[in-house]
Amino acid sequence: MSLRWRIAAGLALIALLVGVVAALGSYLSTSDQLQASVDESLLARANDVNRVPGPGSRDHDNDQRTTGTTGQSGPVCPLPGIFQPAAAAQIVSQNGKVKQCIGGGPTLPVDRTDRTIANNGGKPRYRTVTIDGDDFRVLTIRWHEGGALQIGRGLEESNSVLSSLQLRLALIALAGIGVAAVLGWWIARRIVRPVERLRETAERVARTQDLTVEVPVTSRDEVGSLAHSLRMMMDALATSRAQQQQLITDASHELRTPLTSLRTNLDVLQRVAQLPEADRRAVLESLALEVNELTNLVTELVELATDQTRDEEEPEPVHLGELADAVVQRARRRTGRDVAVVITSNGTVLARRHMVERAISNLVDNALKYSAGEQPVEVVVDGHRLEVRDRGPGIALADQPHVFDRFYRATEARTAPGSGLGLAIVKQIIDRHDGHVWATGRPDGGAAVGFDLPSTADGNGDAVHA
User: CB 3.0-4.6 Å disulfide test: which of 56, 112, 261, 451 passes with 430?
Assistant: First the structure.
């Protein structure tokens, strides 16, 4: 069943339940009112009859005489006309004898409770009885001359009213259900229509791969929120696709240079049969350097394109100073350069050890690449902040916002080896740890490039992305 039909059926069901409850309440209320009216009529008539004088006396209001005799002849009934509109009336004596007061009327049933009222009195008693298939409302009340008076009134009129009411309420309920179903269908169409538009948009995107399709946002409700989320997702996918395309373009451009150099050197080796040993060694060293640079470039491209740095390593508390010291020791052994570590405060951060080591190593390699051989490089650790300082050409103010972009290389640095991906990898790693990177020039020359990570003391250690 479609969502539209479910909404319409749900509203119709609600209307049915409301209609049944309302009809039942109306029916029961009307039935109670009719019964109360009959009871009041019976009680009023019984009270009037109980005020009629005994036999042989005169009723001063109506000038009517009672009939019959007292004593041995049993109970004496008033004149039949005084019981109208009752259909049956009788007097039950204390010894259990019954005297009917309306000729031709039905005999009302007498039970133990009625005889108790006849002998001992008590509160008036109302009940509904069925005599020969007809319903009667019967009142039993204490008779003023002793015994009990029973008056019964037929319920044909009340039952007729209730039957007519049942039919009307059923018709009203059915009409209400029909109206609710039609209204529910209309409401469901209005509710489902924005969802259908979203579905059509999603199918169009899946069919055409066009992420620039406009997503209709027509309201601020949950459907509008869903549309906004879909738009954000499509924007993110479009950005990701653009970044991938840009990565491919930049990678093809960066790969072209070392490949061209390799081809040139290979052509030299092939065309010249006998090269002087020095020239031959220089060509082979150039080939090795180009292959090494090409290998590093491909490795960095793979890491950026496939997120291989997002491995299964779990975050753990680490001392930033210890990581920096380990990286610096390796850099000293590898290059023989002067790299110093200055730890003003050894802070603890929650991070993936090898990923952060890679970030520090990239910063140190970047500083060594742009610093002269005799100039030292400093790695300064202050709590959860780390900064690498060099004495190289520095970073121009216009270049500072872009040094962490993929393949970006400042004008002064384009003659130096490298792919322009090292700092991009640093930013990628630090971003996954909810950290912050920066790159500035130093007043006395050189550059300062660093990052900070959330300290475990900040309560943000659990913010590291998986």
Answer: 451
Output the CA torsion 252→255→260→262 (10° steps): -150
285 burial (CB, 10 Å; 0-12 / 13-18 / 19+) is exposed
| DSSP string covering 342-356 | EEEEE-EEEE-HHHH
**Beta carbons within 8 Å of 344's beta carbon, 6+ residues apart:** 380, 381, 382, 383
User: Domain 316-463 maps to which CATH number in 3.40.630.30, 3.10.560.10, 2.40.170.20, 3.30.565.10?
Assistant: 3.30.565.10
Q: How far apart are CA 371 and CA 281, in angstroms?
A: 27
Alpha-carbon span 428 to 26, nearest angstrom: 71
State which amino acid sits at residue 373. G
Q: Which two tokens stand for residue 240?
A: 């990701």
How would residue 458 be classed by pLDDT, with cut points 50, 70 and 90? low
The answer to whether the beta carbons of residues 87 and 105 sit under 8 Å apart is: yes
The pLDDT tens digits of the residues spanning 52-107 come to 654 444 443 344 333 433 344 566 777 777 787 778 888 898 888 888 888 777 88
Which amino acid would we find at residue 420?
G
From the candidate CATH numbers 3.90.550, 1.10.10, 3.30.70, 1.10.287, the one assigned to the domain spanning 222-306: 1.10.287
pLDDT tens track for 245-256: 777 776 676 677
The model's pTM: 0.44
CATH entry 3.30.450.20 includes domain 54-154: yes
Q: Which residues contact 2 (CB under 8 A, 6 or more apart)?
A: 192
